[in-house]
Automatic annotation (TrEMBL):
PANTHER family: 6-PHOSPHOGLUCONOLACTONASE (PTHR11054). Hydrolysis of 6-phosphogluconolactone to 6-phosphogluconate. It comes from the Bacteria. It comes from Nocardioides immobilis. The gene is pgl. Residues 16-235 form the Glucosamine/galactosamine-6-phosphate isomerase domain. This is 6-phosphogluconolactonase. GO terms for molecular function: 6-phosphogluconolactonase activity. Belongs to the glucosamine/galactosamine-6-phosphate isomerase family. 6-phosphogluconolactonase subfamily. Its EC number is 3.1.1.31.
Length: 245
């Protein structure tokens, strides 16, 4: 199935970032619980960013009533900033602080950090091996924040990472958004997801959302155009982010 054969994106608009975060957190907990009830260990792709952090905090708040077995869910990162393991810039550090440590998640697959790998290339290669060895062929739910420039994960407009087709993860240098060195999953890997959820809030991202969902446009200009779920693609927006649709 090519990306074009996949179901058309759904758009869910919430009043503000707070209601958006609560809605996505509730939906995520339901998806995980349903997968586990069906005897499946779900693979969940996490993203960094502002709205992701709010969602993660809502997951922690709502976790107790969810029935989720946190030892039976695998967490992954769509991208990571190549900084030291304890740096607050790291997506994994932020996600751990917001919910993973609090709920007691045990199967968290992090990208090697700058004090654990010699360079971003080695970290990308190591993460590719981990995904190949311990992943289940794709994410059940992949969450992606979107930058004002239309980037997803660490796939930035016009950057060489957009063209990598022979790897699961790749190194990124000279990122337009700091920090400059990063590791990102490639389109090849992101595109193996059953459900892709774009998470976007704020009017600074309204243009990027409109470009991503327009009939015409290129992935090189707006990388968010380059990923669709095999079974579902949903854009979770607040009013501000949806204001140019
Ligand atoms: O650098 C990154 O930025 C994006 C979006 O972040 P935001 O603060 O504009 O919401 C995020 O999706 C990505 O994972 C992260 O590394």
């Amino acid at each position: 199935m090519t990306t074009d054969d996949r179901p058309a994106p759904l758009i869910e608009v919430h009043t503000d970032p707070e209601t958006l975060a609560t809605a996505v957190a509730g939906e995520l907990l339901n998806r995980i619980a349903d997968a586990q009830a069906a005897g499946h260990v779900p693979d969940i792709g996490l993203t960094g960013g502002t709205i992701a952090d709010a969602i993660h905090r809502e997951v922690a708040r709502m976790a107790a009533d969810s029935g989720v077995d946190w030892g039976a869910v695998r967490f992954w990162f769509g991208d990571e900033r190549f900084v030291d393991a304890d740096s607050p810039d790291r997506n994994a550090v932020q996600a751990r602080a917001a919910f993973l440590d609090e709920v007691g998640a045990t199967r968290v697959h992090e990208v090697p950090a700058a004090d654990q790998a010699p360079d971003a290339e080695s970290a990308a290669s190591s993460y590719s091996s981990t995904v190949r060895a311990e992943g289940n062929g794709g994410f059940d739910v992949l969450m992606l924040g979107v930058g004002p420039d239309g980037h997803i994960a660490s796939l930035f407009p016009g950057h060489p990472g957009l063209d990598v087709t022979d790897a699961i993860a790749t190194a990124v240098h000279d990122s337009p958004k700091p920090p400059p060195d990063r590791v990102t999953l490639t389109f090849e890997a992101l595109d193996r997801s059953q459900a892709v959820w774009f998470l976007v809030s704020g009017d600074a991202k309204a243009d990027a959302v409109a470009r991503a969902l327009a009939d015409d446009g290129t992935i090189a200009e707006t990388p968010a155009r380059g990923v669709k779920g095999r079974a579902e693609t949903t854009w979770f927006l607040d009013h501000a982010a949806a204001s140019k649709l």
